[in-house]
Amino acid sequence: MSNFKKPDQKAISALLNLAAAKLGTSPEALEGQLKSGNLNGALGGLPADQQQKLRAALSEPSAAQKIMNSPQAKAIMEKLNKKQH
User: Fold this and answer.
1) Contact criterion met (CB below 8 Å) for 45 and 24
2) How far apart are CA 55 and CA 39, in angstroms?
């Protein structure tokens, strides 16, 4: 049984929008690449060192959870939620 809660769709949408803007793609294209497992396409706009860090975080669920629970990630989510309302 997983210890993870079901992700909030608003939060996922906000993160996709933010990540897509940083990567120079659309949220829909990024979501499609991630769902298909095409990390090369999804991460192609990042510098190599950032790609490596993100791959490492995504390969370990506890690391990804730690990142999402960080004060920085929470602050970003609050800003994005305020912009959407």
Assistant:
1) yes
2) 8
